[in-house]
Amino acid sequence: MYAVTKEIHFCYGHRLLNHQGKCRHLHGHNATAVIRLETEQLDPLGMVCDFSDIGDYVKRWIDETLDHNMLLHSDDPVLPLLQQAGESVYVMQSNPTAENIARLIFEYVEAGGFPVVEVSIFETESALASYRPSSPSTP
């Protein structure tokens, strides 16, 4: 098995609905997305994927969608206020946890045809959350 990883750095704000701790307040993070690709066979150039191909694809989308954006749950009561104020907001159908952001990025990379197996998000230097789909069960 061959594997490569690509890191993308970005900043975002969020808050978590129904959280009992300080994450219930609007706050931000300097995050790193770590995208892991795997394949059994290398391409004709001897690569899993050209680093610039996956980097350009994901970075462009993150820059347009997540970077310097407030990520909020669709039920967040502050959402209409921020939208009315002209603030940049990305609306999620789930709580904007690092786990759910990792899944969001995973699904985007997968839709692009890349052999993604896992996406991890360093929300801080010491806090990492990951998403990878469950392996199909064997009968």
Tell me what the structure shows.
The protein is an alpha/beta fold and 139 residues long. It has one domain (2-130): Tetrahydropterin Synthase, Chain A (2-Layer Sandwich), CATH 3.30.479.10. The protein is built from 3 helices and 6 strands, in the order E-E-H-E-H-E-H-E-E. The protein has a 6-stranded mixed sheet with strand order 4-3-1-2-5-6. A hairpin with a 2-residue loop joins strand 5 (116-124) and strand 6 (127-131). Pfam families: PTPS (PF01242). InterPro entries: 6-PTP_synth/QueD (IPR007115), 6-PTP_synth/QueD_sf (IPR038418). It comes from Candidatus Thiodiazotropha taylori. Keywords: Lyase, Metal-binding, Zinc.
